């Protein structure tokens, strides 16, 4: 669902200049105006040329997890960017987006904007986590590293909210595995109430304008306000979808795009879901094989029996949650914790420990994994990622309401990911998007003329965005494909020398790796 990281550089210095604007900012704030730069759509001049007030990042933390990343960090500065709530009404309401920057240490080329995925992931938190490593690299010398929280997310104002923290805790305990007519009706009623709460807490106007269509417009405003005539961008997971949509909307404004862990924007959402289920099963099978070689494997020594062993450990939680302090580990949390561990092989050992704990009636590790997925801090505060994920998904996709299709999806998903089969009949359920209070806003399109070569990176054992999606996206954008043979979600700038060297060469010299390049 989400992941982070970055890239490298070198080309002619952009033909824009920096103007430090005088004024009376609050103490500790530096006002700066670098835009407008490059193309500026008519009627949006004040946004594209706005000045930004850079200040300490402490006030931008919204949860304990973001505070750990943002507060008291050297070399980081934050600001808010003003954009129209509705781009069809640029003189109407405005909203503010959170930006985090680590300035370049040397001969600056421009800004490197990055998004870690989600939808709903915080680019500010991700960039802050990456900043120390990036600062000592050629990337840190030549580029300002800029992470942004998309509209409705994290430090951006206002945020999408659908549940309070207490309601989210309660929702995690509501298992919803009953697929009888009464069980389906109850789940759908809950999904309808969830959609109604999103409208109540967030406002319909924000929900109507929170989709990727509008994030792409915001990204172009950032490009100009930061002083870049062309966009240099790194997107992970859902962030690749933002990059692909930007390529369609503003092909002539692109300098370089690195898209890692690709979402295929042309793939049917049903087929995408089934492919993701198969991807998680493939990663679980790899985990089971790894685990079986350990003497302490909680699933036993026969990988062929791992699906059943996992179900035997987790299904009792449907009726009997496990106490974890003053909380309870639900079946939902155990499954979520396992899914979280599929994103990286580094989490396989904690998952094995969590499953071993479950045998003993404990759930501490699995609860930690689930809390990490939901961005819940130790004080019980949730980030915006879960609610923003739903809100963006519901306006980016047409809702699926055909009962026959839903039933077929449920059946095919169980077949694709048997380790997640709860044993109940496969029956489809209307999700919150079927009751969403505003219509979808996504638009079909294709890259226009003038798009330079882009680089897509795809991992053979990626559980969340299967390898084939990257192949398809590279073909769709007419870009280069770099293949990584491994079991994880995204790879660039995570320590693989082969991938990093190829990606850096693209960003430095805009030279794609040779066709067919594979790293492992």
TrEMBL record:
Q: What's this protein's name?
A: Alpha/beta hydrolase
Q: Does the keyword Hydrolase apply?
A: yes
| Alphabetized SUPFAM superfamilies for the sequence | alpha/beta-Hydrolases (SSF53474)
Q: Belongs to which family?
A: Belongs to the peptidase S33 family.
The record, for PANTHER family, names: 2-SUCCINYL-6-HYDROXY-2,4-CYCLOHEXADIENE-1-CARBOXYLATE SYNTHASE (PTHR43248), TRIPEPTIDYL AMINOPEPTIDASE (PTHR43248:SF29)
Q: Name one GO molecular function term.
A: hydrolase activity
Q: Which UniProt keywords apply?
A: Hydrolase, Signal
Alphabetical list of Pfam families matching this protein: Abhydrolase_1 (PF00561)
Top-level lineage group: Bacteria
Domain AB hydrolase-1: from-to ranges: 112-495
Organism, scientific name:
Saccharothrix syringae (Nocardiopsis syringae)
Show which residues constitute the signal peptide: 1-15
